[in-house]
Amino acid sequence: MSGYEVxxxxxxxxxxxxxxxxxxxxEEFDRVLGFDLGTDDYVTKPFSIKELLARxxxxxxxxxxxxxxxxxxxxxxxxxxxxxxxLRQKGQDIPLTRTEFDVLVCLLREEGGVVSRQQLLRxxxxxxxxxxxxxxxxxxxxxxxxxxxxxxxxxxxxxxxxGYVLRA
Length: 168
Fold this sequence. Notes:
Rossmann fold, elongated, alpha+beta, Arc Repressor Mutant, subunit A
């Protein structure tokens, strides 16, 4: 595979890992294509090791959250603080396990889009394949018990055959 194909496959798989392309392709078209496919930085040969290391540090800083990513999410009458890892509803704390919190963050980051079971397994449990377990379904059921007490509201909905969606 070419670097472009690898970058495209990684992004299509939903992985949010930092990518720096190191290449001999110097043309503007090549650089633009790399960025359009999802690379975080594009370095052409020859390059200095000091500059490469500085670029790696910069990409890692951005990936760690220095890019202005939201520190708080609001949906319905809930507020979720990413720094303190708390969920509040109308001023009351809603206790969540670490995994419940991580699943909720994954759903919130999709901004109303469907999140598949495979994406949750990959992003929360770090499992790159579906082992045929119902751990995702059980956890979503527990989350529903905590945030979707009113069955009619369906804040956390199942999209049959596709995954789950969090509706604000």
